[in-house]
Design goal:
Blueprint (H helix, E strand, L loop, with lengths): L1 E8 L1 H4 L5 E5 L3 H11 L3 H5 L11 E4 L2 E2 L16 E5 L5
Parallel strand pairs: 1-5
Antiparallel strand pairs: 1-2, 3-4, 3-5
C-alpha cells in the first residue's frame, strides 16, 4: 500500500527537494521507516531515540495532528492525507 506524503520545511531537502513523495505502510511509523529507506537520514530528522516524534516535528493525518491520534502508531490508509513538517523557528 502506498500513501502520498507531503513534506514541508527542511524535510524537502532530505527528500531531494521533493515536496510530495509516496511511502509504503499502514501506520505513521511504517511510513517514516519507508521514507528513511528511500532517503537515508529521514527517520533521524523526525523520530527521537525513543521512537516517538521529535517535539519539533509536526505530522497531520487528514488535518489532525498525529499526537492527538495515536502518535507514530496512527493507522494510515491509501486515501489519507499525510503532511510531515519541521516548522522553521527563529526570528
Amino acid at each position: 500500500m502506498a500513501v502520498r506524503v507531503r513534506l514541508a520545511g527542511t524535510l524537502k531537502s532530505v527528500a531531494g527537494g521533493k515536496g510530495e513523495v509516496e511511502a509504503a505502510g499502514g501506520s505513521l511509523k511504517a511510513i517514516i521507516e519507508s521514507l528513511d529507506r528511500a532517503f537515508p537520514g529521514f527517520g533521524g530528522k523526525v523520530l527521537g531515540s525513543d521512537g516517538a516524534l521529535k517535539q519539533s516535528v509536526v505530522v497531520h493525518v487528514n488535518g489532525t495532528e498525529a499526537r492527538q491520534l495515536a502518535g507514530v502508531d496512527t493507522a494510515v490508509a491509501e486515501t489519507d492525507e499525510v503532511l510531515i513538517s519541521i516548522p522553521l523557528a527563529g526570528g
